[in-house]
Amino acid sequence: MVRGGEFIHGLPQTTRTCTGRFSGLPIHSETLISAVCLIEICMTEPIQIIGVQGLPLIKKGDDVAALICDRVPLGEGDIICIASTIYSKAKGYTRPLSEITPSERAIRLGALNGEDPRFVQAVLDASTDIIMEHPFILSELSFGHIGVRAGVDQSNIEDGMVIFLPPDPMKSADEVRGRIREITGKNTGIIITDTCGRSFRRGQTGNAIGWSGMQAIRDFRGDTDLFGHVLKITEEAVVDEIAGFSNFVMGESNNGVPAVVFRGCPKWTGHDNLYFSGEEDITRRVLKKEWS
Ligand code: GDP
Ligand code: MN
Ligand code: MN
């Protein structure tokens, strides 16, 4: 529950009252915080945020959608954020380092960045374009995402293993959504997330790398502000905002909460062009010039 800036997380079963004002509108709601970790953000209609507890360590072949449905009764319109880590483990998008032979480039970059050349090779294999080589590899993946070390992880998996991002996260999100519809009959939205670094600011945040059942961006262009000015450039990356908060609920280490349900989000309209094209992306152009 968020209450005038106060955050209450994972409390034992209890009822809390939330009263206050948000965006100038009066609010009042009562929330039951139960065994699932439930957070409620007070707007005109409350948004409930449920961290899915009790999921096992995911292994290849697991049905992630079914495991989530077993633990949280999903409703029509719920948005479920799923950490890419567990989707990839379930699909077997993992490799043992011992089976990776580093190329000359991987050996060179490993020495340059102080990393295991086999890990560097995994990063190179996952990348379609290397944008920056040092002090870490920044690269593009086939689905348009640009990420540090191509999002290849060595955490939350056994020693000596690496986890890759799903190769087509939009398709992954579609698949999970379809499976949830099959199990529950409900139409939900799915966001596959990953924790990413960012330019200009310290600290990682959750990003959406694939989504289904919603549009990535809420388009405010053409809308008027409180003073009647027409907005010309404002596009809100809602999928990243939701992914960002889900990351807060998931945590990064040993929480064991790889999925988060958002209930009661207002609807939005816009478009799906989340990734800049090469020509649009000024930062990428400058970085590429630096490294070419
Ligand atoms: P990423 O952001 O997709 O790279 O995933 P993280 O490694 O940061 O994990 C996100 C959350 O999922 C954390 O709370 C982890 O503890 C949890 N997590 C990761 N793998 C598993 C798993 O196999 N089972 C469970 N129950 N939780 C996991
Ligand atoms: Mn990750
Ligand atoms: Mn993470």
TrEMBL record:
Keyword check for Ribosomal protein: no
Domain of life: Archaea
Keywords tagged on the record: GTP-binding, Ligase, Magnesium, Manganese, Metal-binding, Nucleotide-binding, Potassium
A GO term, aspect molecular function: metal ion binding
Annotated TM spans: none
Pfam families: F420_ligase
UniProt domain Coenzyme F420:L-glutamate ligase-like: residue ranges: 55-264
Name assigned to this protein: F420-0:gamma-glutamyl ligase
Organism per entry: Methanoregula formicica (strain DSM 22288 / NBRC 105244 / SMSP)
